[in-house]
Structures are given as structure tokens and as C-alpha cells.
């Protein structure tokens, strides 16, 4: 099994018709925690329990608390898990292109069958090296035959409704916002603003870079206490990380010599890649951390390495209690 399949099985807490499934709570934990203790066997769900879950999902209103509100009341298949991970780590342009390819008549909506095709295409791309064993292949196919929470949410209880592109965009934005809210609360320790040193901790939290200690030393020496970053500034930086591949390409064009880049070049590359700007507060924090030799420039190669670790999440995380405390916020 692939690492992602193993991770899915580790966090999936329920079984239905012999297949493991995540609940919405399991999914959020899977992107926030390194591992989860499964002291008990996975819960076996009955048809009646699943029908009740689907009824609730079909009536649930959009919000950035969707997964927290559903909690343990829902089913997420393995291919849906990969699909949701892609939403958290990639820019929306790829989804827009795929959606339009399936929307042959140009009416900006798709039916359930077309959506499943989109989901499976994106899920396969998420697996860098798709497993070749028949067991995993058949498991994904069986999972697709079950009507899940995500499908009931998008297409109604019977699956006959159409999914509008604007509603799908809203879902993607809400999911990203929900994870961002939880991470912000986790690292700000529940406060409305995040200290710059907390932001630095969030940035470096998943990295195993050789220069990690140098980054931490820069944070301690160069970032004065008492200065804070707002949730809006934090969200803007998260949007930037989702466009990190476009940023890397832009930097390569701007900076052919592969030398360290200054703040003006960095800011220009961010604007070109995302169409947005980062606050001076965030830019200053990033440069003070990643400027290893004090020349007001940063090595974008090392920075990109840290950012890619940051985007993937789930490798090294806070204790479970910290995440659980954010659940009701």
C-alpha cells in the first residue's frame, strides 16, 4: 500500500460493507496530527446509521465549519480523501479547468457521474506512484459504489441534483478556511492574533531541513516580541503556499542566476503567481527567518523546500489535545 493509503487506514475510524472510511472529524485530524491512537477496533456501521448520516449531509448548509459540525457523522472514501487533500494543497485553477472539461454544454454544472470522474482523475494524480496491487484498486472501486457524505452534500439524498461550479468553489474555499482556522487557533493558542514567533513556529513545524536550527536562531535573534499577525494576513500567506509551484516558476524566470532574492523580487513573484500581496509584517517575518547570512536576501531553494514540507502537513504535529481544543472554536 502507498503511504497515503496507509495513512488513510490509520485515521479511518469506521467500517461499512467491509471497507474503511473516514469521518469528517477523522479527515481533519489526518491533516493536523502525526498519528492517532486506535485503542478500539473500527466501528461497524449499519445501513440505518449510514442512511441517517446521508440525510443530515443532504440538508447541511455551506459553512467554514462543515467538517467540524458533521464530526463523526459521515463517510469519506479513500479516493475522496485524496481529492480533499488536493483541494487543500493546490490552486483552484486546476479544478476549474477539469470542471470545464467535463461541463461539455457549458452550463457550469455537473451531475454525480461527471463529478465521480473528476474526483477519480484528481485522486489518481495525487498518488505520485499509484499502487499496482489489485487489492488497493478493488478497494477504491468498492468505495466509489457507496453513496458517501460528500456526494449527498453535493447531489442531494437521491443523487439527482446538479453541482453548480460556484457551489463547488464555495466548498473548496470553506474547506481551506476550516483547516486554516484550526491551524491558526492551534498556533495562536486560541488568541485572535498570532505572535510573529508563533507564525515562525507554524512555518517551520513540518520541516526537517538541515538549516532548521539556523532558522530557529534567526527567529530568536531577529523577531522582536510583541508583534502580531492577524488571521487575514495568515490566510493570505496560506493562499500563497497553495500557489507555490507558480511562485517557484515565476522566481526561476525573474532570477535566472538562481541567486538569493531580495524582498522586492520576492514580493513581485508572489503578486504574479497569486494575484495578491502579502503584508509587510509577513514578508518581514519570512525574510528574517530565511536570510541566513544577513544580506537581506533569502535562498529561495531552501525556502521552497520548507514550504513544500509545510503544504504536505501531517508529518510532525502538535499533540492531539491541542487540536481537540480547537474543535469547538
Automatic annotation (TrEMBL):
The keyword Calcium applies. It is found in: Mitochondrion inner membrane; Mitochondrion intermembrane space. Keywords: Calcium, Membrane, Metal-binding, Mitochondrion, Mitochondrion inner membrane, Repeat, Transit peptide. GO terms for cellular component: mitochondrial intermembrane space; uniplex complex. Residues 278-313 form the EF-hand domain. InterPro entries: EF-hand-dom_pair (IPR011992), EF_Hand_1_Ca_BS (IPR018247), EF_hand_dom (IPR002048), MICU1/2/3 (IPR039800). GO terms for biological process: calcium import into the mitochondrion; mitochondrial calcium ion homeostasis. GO terms for molecular function: calcium ion binding. This is Mitochondrial calcium uptake 2. It comes from Lepisosteus oculatus (Spotted gar). The lineage of its organism: Eukaryota, Metazoa, Chordata, Craniata, Vertebrata.
